Amino acid sequence: MEELLEILEEMHPDVDFTTCDTLIDSNILDSFDIIALISEIKLEFGVTIPPDEIIPENFNSAKAMYELIERLSD
Amino acid sequence: MLFASYGFIAFISILFIVYYLIPKKHQWKLLLFASYVFYLFAGPKYILYIVFTTVSTYIISLRIDKLNQTQAQYLAKHKKDLSRADKREYRDMMKYRMRRWLVACLLLNFGILAVVKYSNFAIANLNAISRAFGGQGQLSFLNIALPMGISFYTFQTMGYIIDVFRGKYSPEKNIFKLALFVSFFPQLVQGPISRFDDLSKTLFKEHSFEHRSFSFGIQRIMWGYFKKLVIADRILVAVNTIIRDPEMYQGAFALVGMLFYAFQLYADFTGGIDITIGIAQVLGIEVQENFNRPYFSKSIAEYWRRWHITLGTWFKDYLFYPISVSKPMMRVFKFTRERFGGAIGRRIPVYISTITVWFVTGIWHGSSWNFIAWGLANCVVIIISQELEPFYAWFHSKFNVRNAFGFRLFQVVRTVLLMSSIRMFDCYRDVPTTFRMFGSMFTVFNYRELFGGVLLDLGLNMADYCILLIGLILLLGVSLAQRKGSVRSRLAQEPEPLRYAVYSFMFIMILIFGAYGVGYDSSQFIYNQF
Amino acid sequence: MNKKRIGLKIATICFLFITLWFLQKLMVPKYVTAIVEGSLIEEYYHEETDHDVVFIGDCEVYENISPITLWEKYGITSFIRGGAQQLIWQSYYLLEETLKYEKPKVVVFNVLAMKYDEPQKEAYNRLNLDGMKLSMEKIKAIKASMMDDENLIEYIFPLLRYHSRWSELTSEDFKYLFKKDKISHNGYYMRVDVEPVKSIPKGRKLSSYQFGERSYYYLDRMVELCKDNDIDLVLMKAPSIYPYWYDEWDEQMREYANKHDLMYINFLDLIDEVGIDFNVDTYDAGLHLNLSGAEKLAVYFGDILRKTYGLEDRRGDEELKKVWDEKVEFYYSMKEQQLRELEEYGYLKSLGVEKRE
Asked: C161 CB near a chain B CB, below 8 Å?
């Protein structure tokens, strides 16, 4: 979780990722960010996020993303 | 059968009546029948294309589904005696087999699209290259007509098969229902590009007549015709005059043409979509919105989230994301990040995907260099604004104008002008002419001529301009009102006499001021040997 | 409550229909001061008495023969159901429609229209068809006449066709909204001005002189229709020197008339007998006759019709006389007015005629 937050904060220093749960819905993360994020996750966690998992519910909060990573590394 | 034809209006009127008279369980069958009748009007031979897409997608979706079931059964059966690695290996193997079917389906259907839509463009380019190298041999053009709506239904259907492959939903088992999804006539010609899970919720359902959705649907259809006939088809005359004679109409006229085209395209396209969604609504079917007042966007990126929404999300879900997270792209990412560091390294692969997507978006709109240039121009603007992000951040930290009305207005106007100038690519006959005309806006200073009555030489008279002005004001008014919610819902709360007056007024406006039919031109009647 | 709502709906629908009807009346061209040819077809419906002779055809009938003269001279009642560039199927269906109202003894068809085998121009279709009352014959005529970009529904609801006139409406459109002035004399379009013939044209060579199959098809039907109704059909070619009437065409008509035992008169061969002087009897250098020409032709032709088909002199019929006296009076007052105008302005201002250079 720590590593994930670090990646996120590096991208948008002005956002509080621990609390925000509408990252996609309120357009904080755009598709460019998502791609960058997925690439970082691949490097950091060794997890490949397939295109069909790129849906708002999975990226709206840091928590959701972390759950996704957990699920996929299973 | 064009939306703006007597035949089409008769067609939907009959459909609406029959639809609510027959037993409800047959309603979707009637729609399928109507869709194919509609398609037949475009030319009987084109039916083969759409039937092929339907059947091939149907068969392959079932194959994929079968593999999916086999996999689930196998994994359930051997839940205990397989290691995690074994399971993964099995899953990968199955995924590979499913992917083979998917790729076959995509190749077949996009292949057909490519052949009918792009072969002549490819031949023209090959010939040009051959000429450039002094070659003598010239290929002759193929004589294939583009089947109606092929770009739209192919995209919609391929989205469906990809979703099935991804396991988003299980495939439709009834081939006739799938056929209706592929051919649903209101959206066949210009979209929206629907998603199966979304559209199927209401498409195959039984619908009883409901006054509200019927009335709302009819209102929306009328509004669509208003935009199309009163505004778009009227202003079209001036647009055509300007863009067909670029030598004559430069500078100020290029600007006028550019702005007129912005109005025309908006009124025409959103009007058509209003008719589509309105028809669906009368039938009790919900079709996804395709526009969200795009001309109020504050940036190009936002504009593209609000204009032709279903095409944008299609490209995002089925092209942009897949290539962005594909294995080769990941390798590029790793390489660029090691080489250039996080901030830049992260962006390069995304930009590669972005350029690809915009190239494809361009060529999707039309098989010519104009559209490719148009797509790439959009892409360049988006990348530049992405790169300027730090500057914007700095600007906003210095000046607190983000929410000031004046600044937002500036952003909106800037976006509209930017989009309109990019769109000049799809007006003029080729890319160099477009650049020349764009340049002329800054080099040919004939702006004073605009006030000398020359606007009346573009094929529109004073009365036409008055109607246009009223129409555009109405359009703007409705758009502004929509920000506070549905205009129709609010109208529904008004007293009945007022409502009926509004409906009648709209109807008469379209009938009288619509630019349809043979224009009355008294000069035709001048004596000549009769 | 519910009753009130239904009432409101019905009221709205009625209001809408009335508005549309009114708008249609308003937008449709009135053809009163300009292009008056557009009014000819419609004026037939105001007739109260029957006719011995009905003329059908293009401008060569409605500008070249004066029914008033036929009455004054021979007591023959007649009406011209002619229209600008009336095509033969339009003539045929007009005749069919006319027979629903009356049975004339003689029908005269001007054969120039044989040269057109296909619809020519939307504007002329309109001039001939818009004036017809809605009937099966009208619909058949429309279907036979439509150009590719035309639509039946635009004939049935002319508002769809003329809606774009909203920006060109004139006071005339309001003035003649419900009632139009009579402009013709039993279908005859009067002109008193003169423009002499300057040169006699030579016909351009054609690739084929054979009249089209479609023209013959309708001519055959016309012959049949008249036979079935015991009407004598006469084919005429008016003495207009434009458009050129080829000898090859004349030959075909002569043969056709022989074969079907019809009378065919080519007045171009009888110019001297009729007494037409192209220095004074035409108002547009030979395309059409003016009033004096039309009167001469009526005198000559009327005599033939009277003798051949035994048309009685009906001037003794008191009731008929009353009706026709009115027509005669209108005829002479218009003649006088046109002459006055001609004197005052040098051209026929009231007909929207352009002043000649």
From this structure: yes
Q: Which residues pair with C96 in a beta bridge?
A: none
How far apart, in Å, are the Cα atoms of B317 and each of A54, B101, B155, B365? 8, 20, 12, 18
What tokens appear for C257 in the block? 């008339």
pLDDT digits (tens, 9 = 90+) for C209-239: 999 999 999 999 999 999 999 999 999 999 9
Q: Tell the burial category of B387 from Cβ atoms under 10 Å away from its Cβ (0-12, 13-18, 19+).
A: exposed
Q: Tens of pLDDT along B157-200?
A: 999 999 999 888 899 999 999 999 999 999 988 889 999 999 99
Instruction: Check residue C357 and give its pLDDT.
Output: 41
Cross-chain Cβ contact A39/B167 below 8 Å: no
Chosen for mutation from B469, B525, B526, B529 (greatest number of chain C CBs closer than 10 Å) is B525
Query: CA B310 to CA B193: how far, in whole Å?
Result: 5
Q: How many other β-carbons are positioned within 10 Å of the β-carbon of residue B373?
A: 19
Backbone angles phi, psi at C188, to 5 degrees: -90, 130
Say which of B514, B516, B524 has its CB closest to residue C123: B524
Domain boundaries, given as residue ranges, for chain C: 2-351
Contacts of B357 (CB under 8 A, 6+ apart): B315, B316, B319, B320, B323, B379
The pLDDT score that the predictor gives to residue C120 is 87
C235: phi then psi, degrees, rounded to nearest 5: -100, 130
Q: What is the pLDDT of residue B15?
A: 96
Nearest-angstrom CA–CA distance, C234 and B8: 46
Q: Are C39 and C183 in contact (CB under 8 A)?
A: yes
Domain residue ranges in chain B: 6-132+145-208, 210-287+423-516
Query: Which of the four pLDDT bands, split at 50, 70 and 90, describes residue A74?
Result: low
Q: How does pLDDT run across C84-116, given as a tens digit for each residue?
A: 899 999 999 999 999 999 999 999 999 999 999
d(CA B111, CA B117): 10
Per-residue CA distances from B481 to B16, B264, B476, C85 (Å): 30, 21, 8, 54
- Domain coordinates in residue numbering, chain A: 2-72
CB pair distance less than 8 Å for B317 and A51: yes
* CATH architecture type of domain C2-351: 3-Layer(aba) Sandwich (3.40)
SS3 state at B64? helix
Q: How many helices and strands, by DSSP H and E, does chain B display?
A: 22, 0
How close does chain B come to C57, measured CA to CA in Å? 11
For residue C352, the model assigns a pLDDT of 63
Checking if the pLDDT of A72 tops 70, the result is yes
Mean pLDDT rounded to a whole number for chain B? 88
- Contact between B436 and B246 (Cβ < 8 Å): yes
The gap from C-alpha B330 to its chain's centroid, in whole angstroms, comes to: 31
Neighbouring C-beta atoms of residue B198, cutoff 10 Å: 14
State the pLDDT at residue B519. Answer: 59
Q: Which CATH superfamily is domain A2-72 in?
A: ACP-like (1.10.1200.10)
What are the DSSP calls for C285-297, one per residue? TTSSB-HHHHHHH
Residue C179 has pLDDT above 50, yes or no: yes
Residues 116-135 of C with CB under 8 A from B: 121-124, 127
Locate all alpha helices (DSSP H) within A1-74, ordered by sequence: 2-11, 31-45, 56-59, 62-72
Asked if residue C282 has pLDDT above 70, the reply is yes
C232-237 and C106-110: which strand pairing?
parallel
Touching, A vs B (3+ Cβ pairs under 8 A)? yes
Model pLDDT, residue A40: 81
What is the arithmetic mean of pLDDT over C306-330? 92
- What is the model's pLDDT at position B223? 95
Q: Which residues of chain B have pLDDT under 50?
A: 520-530
